[in-house]
Design goal:
Structural class: alpha/beta
Distance between the termini: 13 Å
Order of helices and strands: EHHEEEEHHH
Strand content: 15-25%
Shape: globular
Number of helices: 5
Number of strands: 5
Length: 153
Amino acid sequence: MSFKELFKPELMALNMQATDQIDFFSQVSDRLLEQNVVKETFKAAITERENNYPTGLQLENFAVAIPHTDVVHVKEAFVAVNRLSNPIDFYQMGTDDVVVPVKDILVLGIKDPKKQVGLLAELMGAFADPSFVEKYEKATTIEEITALINQYL
């Protein structure tokens, strides 16, 4: 399976409203549970993992968070693209005191931990590319985001 196949349009949500991380993880977990790609334990697991290992990433012109959790909580591999109407705070990856306001959150559902490193590297590479970021920020529909991912990954 290529990384592109993990980006399922039915798991994407644009213009989401979330007041904070807890609200966000609750909404996303419920949606992923409805789509039958995660287990009941996913919500608690991803929230706890984010508290212990923050996933906010402040890049040169863009901020993104890439939360994920252990494979035991995931039924089917996926990447769920979420865009919030207003940013919520995540901590910068590798810190517990640097706040990154984030509107774009890519929730990863990993089934094979060996592939996780490659997927993270691909995502970070794409978001480090100014032309990708510019197009990604302008994309307003699930179709546009899907096309962009197919082009860059």
